[in-house]
Amino acid sequence: MILRPPSSVPEIVADQACRLAGAPVWHPVSNLLYWTDAHSACLYSYDPGAARSVLSPTAEKVLQVAACDDGSLLLFTADGALKALRGTSILTLVERLPLGPGAQIDAAAADRQGRLYCAVRSKGRKGSLYLVHSDGAIEPVPGGAGRVCGLSFDSDGGLLYCCDAVTREISCLAHDSATGALSSRAVVHRVPESLGAPRGIAADAKGFVWVAVWGGSCIIRLAPTGKEERRVYFTARLLSGVTFGGPDLRDLYVVASGGEDRKANGPGAGALYRLRAGVKGASTALVPGRLLP
Questions:
Q1: CA pair distance 226, 288, nearest whole angstrom
Q2: Closest CA to 133 of 159, 110, 167
Q3: 258 has a pLDDT exceeding 70
Q4: Beta-carbon count within 10 A of 270 CB
Q5: Ramachandran angles phi, psi of 266, nearest 5°
Q6: CATH class in words for 11-291
Q7: Which region among 7-21, 218-232, 253-267 has the lowest average model confidence (pLDDT)?
Q8: Which helix (DSSP H) or strand (DSSP E) does residue 119 occupy?
Q9: Between β-strands 182-190 and 228-233, what pairing exists: parallel, antiparallel or unpaired?
Q10: In the β-sheet with 271-276, what is the strand arrangement from edge to edge?
């Protein structure tokens, strides 16, 4: 491993003391960074231009989000519904997604064609991947999945990276852009048990991926071969999500959990961090606004 420093040190830009932060998503239309606290099911946004964060104007209990090309935001809620936030209005798209009883969406990622892939976990069942097509149709992806808590496409959309919190594996699947099919799963890296478990992933424009490590107080950058190339440490132990953002996609945003116990989890537990990583992120893929009524 080469301990190369980023071009800046991690700084806390918002401090909501989240207990279980996740789902950081940069919206290139609104120029806002969104993330959630799954414990309270709250949705937050950060405006880097105004340097302020707010609790978004919705009473929905939000677990995951995805950005739409018309500036709206898809919301996967705790009651199993798919909704949309357009300005301050909430639109219900699907009352209950056909994902099975007790299903919870742990991660989501859009491809360049506007399809949305979701990692779903149900009690007593193996995790699954589901595909939401640009016309709103929903179908399971063959092959299943483990405890996937992070999804990210690479820079050209040919690979979908997954991180599994139980096996601690980072794997990739070949992605067919014409059909949306996934195949040829391959494990590229396994986070050492002594370091922690992967809980979020984001690809950069050079084919590397950045992984938030739960329990390790760090994010790691992996080469396409799976070799760890870089490690950056934070003042929080439970890092739980990572994404690129900013107008030039060169800001790396990282969310931390454990804000209810900073003595155990570090002084930055529950905060939103930002750093300049010295590399541009993969372009943000958007879900088409035509999904919305």
A1: 32
A2: 110
A3: yes
A4: 27
A5: 100, 155
A6: mainly beta
A7: 7-21
A8: strand 116-121
A9: unpaired
A10: 11-15, 271-276, 251-256, 239-245
